[in-house]
Write a structure and sequence with these properties.
28% helix; Immunoglobulin-like; five-stranded antiparallel β-sheet; eleven-stranded mixed β-sheet
Length: 734
Amino acid sequence: MLIRAPDANLAANLLLSPAPGFFLGAWESPSARRVAIALASGAPVPRPVATLRLERPGRSARHVAAFRCEAGGDDEILVRDGAEILLTSPVRGAIADPAPLLQGLDAVLKAQLLRFLLGYCRSAFRLSADRDFAAFAKRLALAAAAPAAPLVPFARLGSIGTLWHGPLETAAPPHTVFLIESNRVSENAVPALARAEDHEIALATASDGRGEAVAVLAGESTISCRVLSAARSVPSIVERAERRELGPVERYYVLRFLGAFAAHPQAAQIARSLALGAGETPRRLVDTKRPIAAELELVIDCGEAGVFARGWLRDPHALVSEATLVSPFGERSLSAVWHRLDRPDIERKFSKNPFAAAQHGFIARLADLREPIPALQHRLVLTAAGAPIELVSAPRPMTDAEARNAVLGSISDRQLTPEILERTIAPAAAALHARVMRRERRLDVVPFGTPPSRPRASIIIPLYRNLDYLRFQLAAFAVDAEIREAELVFVLDSPEQRADVEHLLTGLHALYELPLKLVVMPANLGYAAANNAGAGVASGEALLLLNSDVIPVRPGWLGTMLAALDRDGVGAVGPKLLFDDGSLQHAGLYFDRDVKGAWYNRHFFKGYPRDFAPAMRPREVPAVTGAAFLVHRAVYEAVNGLSEDFIIGDYEDSDLCLKIRSKGYTIRYEPRAELYHFERQSIRHHAGYTRTVACAYNRALHSARWGATMEAVMRGFRLPAAAENQARKPRRAA
């Protein structure tokens, strides 16, 4: 609807209704006016009211006001400046003619007007899905700029959208792209890509190219309308990449677009396919005759913790002034945050003196670089003598667990400092570990025989890789009448061994007629998750967490531990554990600081004779080991079981003890229950633990959480002189 004001001297003043209930008013004035908009009946116009001033050199400015108004009958809209009525009209519904709105505006002002209407007004007045507004927007855009050469579909981006190509009209890239379709107007997820070297423009949109659509490319002072032309058959983006028809800049552009649709199930799939099926050729500098050598070995997306990078740079002549990590989603200075590390392997390769100290390696966490979808290939740009040198990483697809282990394995214990752990390793590892633990947990429970109906205790035994002790453990259980009244729950934390474990347990069950359950985890999730899963399917009033490498010395040990647990106020009980030579491995845990102030878990009397007098006395202790840990089910559930934010398996037992203590319970050591513990027989098979700094990570997490509590707990315990002396001497090797 086009309505002219009643004052003939204001012939340029307009009132348009681009969509039902939405109005645009336009008038000309040399000065800015604070207008009031209301209905003639006196009803106010609801907020928001948006205004735009278009400065016209040598002429009066054009003012545009946008507002919503709902009225009926013959009521009128009045736009006033004080007593003066600028615009008036009866309220009707009709599609407005946009052409007069553009009269007298140059290209720069037309671009401003289009960004105002298609950007701010579309969003503020919720017009994105209004078909009338879409029709008005299309007419306005085509009137503002005659359509240039159409964009043709170049590649399908799965069901997400399309990549379009067309001739480049201007070298200045558009800052914003609006997509006008028959039923909606939207701001495109990414701007267009100006490929000046090819005189082409590329545009990725969520439009599938089947319906009529117009792309409005709006720069600061330019505007271009490009019709998106349909095509019957369009290759996929992966097909284009496999034919080497996708350059590195356009590849990054496509990944940025896919990142805007990270929630779409195909976004990450297409990105992985591009990297693995048609990736860029990795580039590294390994020529020993060149003055600079370098490689970007690994880049890992750590979610909210940013991006972790590892590599090496040999620059003996200090030629490199800057190192920049380039991701499809941004670039950051790597040399501003990296930690330089010794890399003897690189020194041996390049130097005649392989024992010389040289910090060729680097690790870094770029905390403010976020990747909505994993980009498997990145660039390292080295600036040397003012010229860039580009390296490209090889694609390294990893599961979250593998990525976490790679972060923890990127540095040795010798190189690790509190600063590196706190700033770089811990945030990245924690974010990746959280992703590992968020995975869906569908447990398969395989019964062998009929378990006791109301067992007093359930024995939960995690299995990981090492099955060497399973036969001996079950043989010891089989000759113990108390164990036959308990519930046995084995939890397999290495599901790839399922067939072997089921076969072994089938034979052992037939041999010993011991009923048991096998719980199969969906993946290796660590000691805490395995025990929590076992507790979830167990039915006993008490839960005994038992390692698979623990073998009872004689029958009756379980009843002895249960009797100790029945004492008033006791939350958990641990037995005496022995090495295979009969010496003490565990007689309770206590907490102790090293010379640097770091908290450690110590075993009372470790390495001392089995019958060492102080170890023969039942008593309260600060904590007990998780290798054999008896706890009331109600207490276990009250503290939410074992904490799962420790990685692989370390410090969860003392964490559990401290949680139990925080509820007012005590922890007891019961020496009359004796078992052999062939220490760390399973965890030594875990590459994510043995070749990483996982232990240091867990210790730091434990100390940060419980440092003050451990200090207070230890003030309440007077250590026996033997334990104090033991803390100052080398411990027995496990």
